[in-house]
Amino acid sequence: MVDIMVVLSVISLYMKATHALLPWAPLIARVLVGGTFVLSGINKLQNFDAMVGVAQAAGIPSPEIAIVLALVVELLGGLSVMLGYRIFWGALGLLVFTVLTSFIFHADFADPMQKVLFTKNMGIAAALLYMTRFGAGKMAVEK
Q1: DSSP-based three-state secondary structure for 85
Q2: 1 has pLDDT over 70
């Protein structure tokens, strides 16, 4: 049987650690969300021809231009979110981009993997929506 004092001590330690991390939460969220887009933009840059092929296969008109636009949105928006600089515009741009690309590339709900990818993207969109409303937090380039 577990001693109640041990349980209370563990809970107290957990609450202290959580409280200490709370000021860092917006920065951690921005780095994780923004970093995802920066890495995706770098991937598009490194695999440009393959990405154009994917866009072409999806029926995107002017796939080269579309990939360049996606690359710019992901890199600039991702850096904006990560740094907390003009985060409203960076997060809003990424939000629109994420929702649009989710419906274009991941709306085949009969495919379980596409359903997972769509749902994941909606979670990211929710984080971006939160950032557009509440901003970057205290640890940001622009306050």
Answers
A1: coil
A2: no
